[in-house]
Amino acid sequence: MPVITTIDDLKQMHRRRAPKMFFDYCESGSWTEQTFRENTSDFDKLRLRQRIAVDMSNRTLASTMIGRDVAMPVALAPVGMTGMQCADGEIKAARAALKFGVPYTLSTMSICSIEDVAKATKAPFWFQLYVMRDEEFVDNIINRAKHAGCDALVLTLDLQLLGQRHKDLKNGLSAPPKLTPKTILNLATKWSWGLEMLQTKNRSFGNIVGHAKSATDMSSLSSWTAEQFEPKLDWGMIARLKEKWGGKLILKGILDVEDAKKAVAVGCDAIVVSNHGGRQLDGALSAIRMLPAIVAAVGTQTEVLMDSGIRSGQDILKARALGAHGVMIGRAYIYGLGAMGEAGVTKSLEILAREMDLTMALCGKRDIADVDRDVLLVPKDFEGDWA
Question: pTM higher than 0.85 for the full model?
């Protein structure tokens, strides 16, 4: 077993173990990948303020997220096809999150179904909804999430149209994947991954196949997904979905102050400042650059979370210092899952918690609730002066 000290260590293990098409699905952005890169590089522009001769004992990262007690202000973000990074990936990630004490979010485009995860975890998790044209399907999946005991609905708003991701097209990644001689050869080299996949029944999109009328099997799934993302999604439709759900609502994909204000007006419990990990609008600003302005506009009216670009506990601390109530992590835990399954997700959470804890202490703070902009040195032009 190698010595694992960083999220990047898990990333390299994930790269070696998982098929190329699934690793690339995780590690890619749209078009030129400018936004994908800047999501992480912009964190490096923020520097930490070292403080000394302060009491660093009895530290705590404990917090809350939309009323739920959490071990640290982190939730596992929804990631499509998690169950293809590792057999039963959604179940394994949910179990690791539960044991660690942070929320898990299941994607509409998951391999394991809502019911599979609920049966395997016996604890509430969050459910992420993509709005589809098939209104009956949408209503039914909301009811399924309710029945499973999901305690929050995460409504993703930035995928009405699919951003072009060159790696996915070149790898033939679709629903289901298009197998070519090149991809088949790569799959054949990933024997440990393949053996695990052979031992699970979960190899299709469990929330869709058998639940959508025209997606009865994997052969009909591709045409269904190509046509289904709802381009007409607007604030009126969001209000209808909020009423239909009736529980806690998180709106994900906010990257503009005016949209943040509209999200508050519709009555959400939290927003997620996010650009979909750089996988949608290439050329958009990074989430961390947009965070301060959005917090200033609505941070007293709703919980402001953020995702996109987080690869370390220091990144989480920086987001918290700029006003985020908490963060969602995607790639950071997927690397661990792809590398080592459930144990890898746990390892990723342990790495993030340790980095955040030690950094917080060296910045002179003992409680994550006390972390604010005082721990940062922020470039004067960080948010930009855009015409």
Answer: yes
